[in-house]
Automatic annotation (TrEMBL), chains A, B:
Organism, scientific name: Streptomyces indiaensis
Stretches assigned to the HTH tetR-type domain: 12-72
InterPro entries from the UniProt entry: Homeodomain-like_sf, HTH-type_TetR-like_transc_reg, HTH_TetR, MT1864/Rv1816-like_C, Tet_transcr_reg_TetR-rel_C_sf
Protein name: TetR/AcrR family transcriptional regulator
Keyword line: DNA-binding, Transcription, Transcription regulation
DNA-binding region residue numbers: 35-54
Amino acid sequence: MTIQKRRERERAERERLIVTAARELAEAEGWDAVTTRRLADEIEYSQPVLYSHFKGKGAIMAAVAVQGCEELAGELRAARTAAGSAREALAAVGRAYTAFARRRPALYDVIFTLDVDLPFATPEAPAALQDAFGELLQAVQPIAAEGEDMGALTETYWAGLHGLVTLMRSGRLPEEAHERRLGLFIGHFVPQGTD
Amino acid sequence: MTIQKRRERERAERERLIVTAARELAEAEGWDAVTTRRLADEIEYSQPVLYSHFKGKGAIMAAVAVQGCEELAGELRAARTAAGSAREALAAVGRAYTAFARRRPALYDVIFTLDVDLPFATPEAPAALQDAFGELLQAVQPIAAEGEDMGALTETYWAGLHGLVTLMRSGRLPEEAHERRLGLFIGHFVPQGTD
DNA sequence: CGTCGATTTCTAGCAGCGCTAGGGACAAGA
DNA sequence: TCTTGTCCCTAGCGCTGCTAGAAATCGACG
């Protein structure tokens, strides 16, 4: 009984260890450096142990993605609630989003660019993903015009931010003009004369 | 002399063959299926031959990207010049861009998402890339407000399209609402009351 | 206390990847 | 015919994600 419990606890602990190691390794050296052998070394177990916890490397990455998304959702919420007006809130959330992407590129990639089979845009999507989207939704809501599709509008805002971030991070947009582009995007997104 | 020329011609021919094979394989089965072994099989030469033409797999992908970008630039231009008003032209270019991404996902990926060390956003960027960007620029120009930074504005428009496309294609945005999102994006991008 | 049975973990290996060293075939010139 | 130089292929390196099967460990029971 207690033995069983202890084992489960230890297993859960080790699982956390794997996810943490993957995350730290990715943040330090990028996802290319995260190989199953390297990860096994890091946690001081052999490779097959990883597969007794996760279906494969993709599942480990998905776990990191969920963790990262919780962090993102928190930062978006903080930015939104700290802002004064609705307009400022939208801008603040946009800035927080792109700032997250730049500060934590590995996390951003595993959530939003690498394919890692997490369910998105469905009820089965992890809570963290829905929370993050919810933050965007709440920021977009007040500036929506009468009768606009809120979901689609939020998705559109999100996509704009995502595009700015990914093109910049892949070297396709010059880094130095990021703030200007972001300002233009947010400015064009808010209907003129909205408070 | 003539022998030399014939050899050079044959070499150039084989190089074209490699790029075409890579492109077709990628379009048919995705870039994961494009391995150097598979490519060598396809062109009926051994693997090392590829490396006598290109520095590596990345260089082959870059060549495909340039080809694909020429195609994209052509489609953007056609869309732009066929439109009536400036506003319609911007919308048409946006639709043409996302349509290209959906119709030729492998080409789109190699140009805009996979990293393939092509110089972007510099004078050394291949002409095809500059042409495609130029088409966007010409579509954005007429709807820009007084004194707006044209380059940054175009980049922002591009980023929005790119975000919509990549999030949708990776399954993060539901496919069915694409048209609605695209309409919202373009609508918000054009300042109210612009002709 | 010693042995059995089950669970856990490791060693070793598979098939694939991008890439390359070195040798053999083949054609052009003496 | 023999040499020279070019071209191309075979074979292999070190790496990847992943897994089968042996080994070791630990709890339970006689």
